[in-house]
Amino acid sequence: MAEDKKNVDESAEPQVPQAVVSRLSLYLRELQHLVRDGFETTSSTQLGRLLGFTDAQVRKDLAYFGQFGYPGIGYRCAELIAAIKKILGTNQSWSLAIVGMGNLGRALIGYRGFQQQGFEIVAGFDTDPAKIGNKIEGLQVYHLDEVTQVVREKNIRLAIVAVPSAVAQRVADALVSAGVEGILNFAPVTLALPKHIHTVGVDLAIELEQLSFNVVSKLAKGP
Amino acid sequence: MAEDKKNVDESAEPQVPQAVVSRLSLYLRELQHLVRDGFETTSSTQLGRLLGFTDAQVRKDLAYFGQFGYPGIGYRCAELIAAIKKILGTNQSWSLAIVGMGNLGRALIGYRGFQQQGFEIVAGFDTDPAKIGNKIEGLQVYHLDEVTQVVREKNIRLAIVAVPSAVAQRVADALVSAGVEGILNFAPVTLALPKHIHTVGVDLAIELEQLSFNVVSKLAKGP
DNA sequence: TAGATTGTTAATCGATTAACAATC
DNA sequence: TAGATTGTTAATCGATTAACAATC
């Protein structure tokens, strides 16, 4: 128990790369489309083609989590969907908080895609007195000072941060001390948080920078 | 010239991994914060610490593009900012179109972070007659049928897709045939587009799935 | 049976890290 | 000079792909 070599994780499982987890979400999305389009089964080749991956990669990714396919047949879509949801934790529904009732925050409250994948926003927070106590887009808005109480009452484990950069770190700290375990951060800053808190950052300007880089780079090569 | 081994890109340059490009955007963001906070210079160690990377990785990433540092000194922030902007193509301003004037589309029009990094939304598109011809959040809204003309007139090279999944592919096709070269897609679908068109997909539900996966996985290990 | 497709091992490829001479 | 830090090469590590026996 005492002997740790380097900083290797002590847990037994093979340790799943984050890249595998994000492809898992893409497999889930494609499988849902396949079911909608009437497919009962699919194959690693088909899934790979739809997403631009090799068939080997699809099989390898799934192999991290178990055996889900049938040699000679492929994968039963409904079955694989259920399995991936279980792995991702979205076989159950998650209660979310959102902080920041600006343009982006309000848009996210109305976003249908969250509900569809098992995420329900159950509380909004802001510090603007004009907004607190009202409902915005049907969602009850609380003062950030009440976050600890509301998070406990409503069993909130994940939160969305949609506030200006200048206050994002303070808001994140408040969420963490209220007991939130994961944060989806839309403010264009790197949050400094305890290691056991999970963070995903979405910086919209950065996404555009990836595009502009690729567009300008391609100028070098002719058509 | 004829002899190509496998499907190796013919272009001379070392071929930059996409992961490097996204870290480049993060370096830029941190450098801008450092300048705001009064730093004249920084180092690979400092940048790495702020972002959770090793110093070696920072230097290696930058080395793809040239020599920007001073041995014994580090990097001059302003200088490195200018260099990265040039690499990413954001030393110039980009004119953007946005398609879809729903909740998310309207929020993105008002998002200050785009302007700040050199992206200006100059035209909105929709197919709802009630919206066309008006200004939304100060932005002129056109019918999607006019996209080719507007794209040409306003020199638009990048576009944001914020429409429902069901129509995202058709919208993307229209943008491409209008001459757009890069698409930031918020619809939760994989777009099938010509190889020379660049796409970045942002699926908000998938970002939350990454969080839920990590939160449930951590249950296995006790504190 | 023949054809299809899995799960898995081994081979390849690519990315990260460590180390260090060169430089300020 | 001593201390700091770069750019770069070599070593390590990890992820992807190819190949194939097993299975339906």
What does this structure look like?
By secondary structure, chain A is of the alpha/beta class. Chain A is built from nine helices and nine strands. Chain A has helices at 18-36, 44-51, 55-63, 77-88, 103-109, 112-116, 147-153, 165-177, 204-217, and strands at residues 41-42, 75-76, 94-99, 119-126, 135-136, 139-143, 158-161, 182-185, 198-201. A seven-stranded mixed beta sheet of chain A has the order 5-6-4-3-7-8-9, with helices on both faces. In chain A, strands 1-2 form a two-stranded antiparallel ribbon. In chain A, helix 8 (165-177) links the parallel strand 7 and strand 8. Chain A starts with 17 loop residues before the first helix and ends in a 6-residue tail after the last helix. The model of chain A is unreliable at 1-12 (pLDDT under 50). Chain A binds a DNA duplex (24 and 24 nucleotides) through helix 3.
